[in-house]
């Protein structure tokens, strides 16, 4: 039996689903039961009736699924698939910020640990950060946005809210520079430039639209343009081309590759199902507290 057939058989035997982030390798995207951005994957994790979820993405995404559905078995095919941005805010740093600003509300980007989520007021993803900042608190509330300084400053600029920023960032999106945007514009004329809000402010300024990966997928279907320059991790281009064969997609630069997202492959998904590894576990107390922040975020889908 080939590996894909074996994966399908194991999935049936275990009543499992495979959730796949848009940045994953094409071979992994092809076996997805659901493929999407962080918000879409969280919603899928909350709705599935499966007993087992194999999460092809990075660790904070699998942890989020565990928090939403603690009774399910959540597997991550490679336990080293972390997100460096999530490690840029520790629980100690969050507590010290809260001490400095005792009345501030905390918006925590889902790219963070379960422990940090547990001590935040609400989570957000790049798809709903603006809606969360706009609606979750009163106009006068002081807000601390952790850990992404670029998504935080974009949200601050768009909402005019009183937002305190921290210093985290995504090392993959940080590689995208204004000169890449200008060069891509020249190389691919008459294209719309779509960038992820994890890009720096100078890159955002040169773009036409700022969107989460799921937002990009929706946007290209309604835009009048037929050519798009994509300013995010390159994995999404496979999906965009597959779903929109009549449109053209060009990477903004060839260096925006997240090494953690590329750790998962078919062989590891197969081993994950066969050997039930690597199971994501969290203390009940953390799950209980972090769930409040995540469920509050799901009001802004
Ligand atoms: P999305 O929620 O847009 O898929 O982004 C997740 C992520 O990790 C971006 O680097
Ligand atoms: Fe984390 Fe950046 Fe990779 Fe997204 S692309 S998982 S933010 S390191």
The portion of residues assigned to helices is: 40-55%
Helix/strand-derived class?
Answer: alpha/beta
Tell me the CATH topology of the largest domain: Rossmann fold
Shape: globular
Residue-averaged pLDDT, rounded? 97
Residue runs with pLDDT of under 50 for 5 or more positions: none
Please provide the ordered H/E string of secondary-structure elements.
HEHEHEHEHEHEHEHEHEHEHEHEHH
The CATH level-2 architecture of the largest domain is identified as 3-Layer(aba) Sandwich
Query: What's the number of domains?
Result: 3
Structure description:
- The chain is α/β, with parallel strands linked by helices and 301 residues long.
- The protein has 3 domains: 3-81 and 261-282, Rossmann fold (3-Layer(aba) Sandwich), CATH 3.40.50.10800; 86-169, Rossmann fold; 176-251, Rossmann fold (3-Layer(aba) Sandwich).
- It has 14 helices and 12 strands.
- The chain has helices at residues 3-14, 26-29, 38-47, 59-68, 91-100, 114-118, 129-135, 149-159, 178-187, 201-205, 213-222, 236-243, 266-275, 284-297; strands at residues 16-21, 34-36, 52-56, 73-75, 105-109, 122-124, 143-146, 163-165, 192-195, 209-210, 227-231, 248-251.
- The strands form 3 sheets. The chain has a 4-stranded parallel beta sheet, with helices on both faces.
- 1,3-dihydroxyacetonephosphate binds at residues 22, 37-38, 111, 125-127, 170, 196, 198, 212-213.
- 1,3-dihydroxyacetonephosphate binds next to loops.
How are the secondary structure elements laid out?
Layout: H1 3-14, E1 16-21, H2 26-29, E2 34-36, H3 38-47, E3 52-56, H4 59-68, E4 73-75, H5 91-100, E5 105-109, H6 114-118, E6 122-124, H7 129-135, E7 143-146, H8 149-159, E8 163-165, H9 178-187, E9 192-195, H10 201-205, E10 209-210, H11 213-222, E11 227-231, H12 236-243, E12 248-251, H13 266-275, H14 284-297
Parallel strand pairs: 1-2, 1-3, 3-4, 5-6, 5-7, 7-8, 9-10, 9-11, 11-12
Helix pairs in contact: 1-13, 3-4, 4-14, 7-8
The structure holds 1,3-dihydroxyacetonephosphate and iron/sulfur cluster.
Residues 22, 37-38, 111, 125-127, 170, 196, 198, 212-213 line the site of 1,3-dihydroxyacetonephosphate.
